[in-house]
UniProtKB/TrEMBL annotation:
GO MF annotation terms: phosphorelay sensor kinase activity
The species this protein was found in: Lysobacter capsici AZ78
NAD keyword on record: no
Protein name: histidine kinase
Catalytic reaction(s) noted: ATP + protein L-histidine = ADP + protein N-phospho-L-histidine
PROSITE patterns: HIS_KIN
Highest taxon listed in the record's lineage: Bacteria
Keyword vocabulary terms for this entry: Phosphoprotein
Domain Histidine kinase: 7-217
Top EC class of this enzyme: transferase
Upper lineage: Bacteria, Pseudomonadati, Pseudomonadota, Gammaproteobacteria, Lysobacterales
Transmembrane segments: none
Length: 225
């Protein structure tokens, strides 16, 4: 735990220093918020938010807090995820493509933990995918399961690394910024909701991370509303 706190504090300090420096330059009046320095500030603030979200999810699981299951629309959840991820896509210089989701589909999970897990996957995708490429978010049903795919275009991974990325403090690409904890926390968040999180490597193209959860349907009165 002390090691994790040390890494967390180090990354928190880095992001805060970057944001402070960018803000100081902007306050001098020589550059605007819409320029490159504003982009640096955006990325630093997003990084701080992501770091806090991951730490909150970890605290909940470490403390053994009860899972707060509730039934909700998969389409509404993906729409919320898209809204929060759109800014990060813009800052990263990538395109976010989100497929249409069947309005009848639902999941019965802890929404905050699932949002943390899916958000981590998208953050990871934006971090490692090649500039001016595409990150794809796809949610659909397969038999009695709900699958949420996040696909990036990072160029693929070395053989055997797909599973190792879920080990804490493991970083599998040239971009070594961050703690290497996001995927580990994401997997535990999904498993706490009776699901699984797996990764598929597409050599020369990228990776597909898949959240697999039990399938549910919305009550008819909810759909009609």
């Amino acid at each position: 735990m002390n090691e994790r706190l040390g890494f967390f504090a180090h990354e928190l300090r880095n992001q805060l220093c970057t944001a402070t420096l960018a803000l100081s330059i902007i306050k001098e009046g020589n550059v605007g918020l819409s320029g490159a320095t504003g982009g640096v500030l955006d990325r630093a603030l997003l990084g701080l938010g992501n770091l806090i979200d991951r730490s909150l999810a970890e605290v909940r699981m470490q403390a053994g807090m009860p899972i707060q299951h509730r039934l909700f629309s998969l389409a509404d959840f993906i729409a919320e995820l898209k809204l929060s991820a759109s800014l990060e896509a813009q800052v990263s210089g990538c395109t976010l493509t989100v497929s249409e989701v069947d309005p009848l589909l639902a999941v019965d999970v802890d929404r905050d933990l699932l949002l943390s897990a899916a958000g981590n996957l998208l953050q990871n995708a934006f971090k490692f995918t090649h500039p001016r490429s595409e990150v794809i978010l796809n949610a659909y049903a397969l038999a009695d399961r709900i699958l949420i795919d996040v696909q990036d275009h990072c160029g693929g991974l070395p053989p055997g690394l797909a599973e190792e990325m879920f080990v804490p403090f493991t970083q599998g690409a040239e971009n070594r910024s961050g703690l290497g904890l996001g995927l580990s926390i994401a997997r535990r968040s999904v498993e706490a909701n009776s699901g699984t999180l797996s990764a598929r490597n597409k050599p020369g193209s990228g990776c597909i991370f898949t959240i697999d959860l039990p399938r549910h349907s919305l009550p008819e009165k909810h759909i009609a509303a």
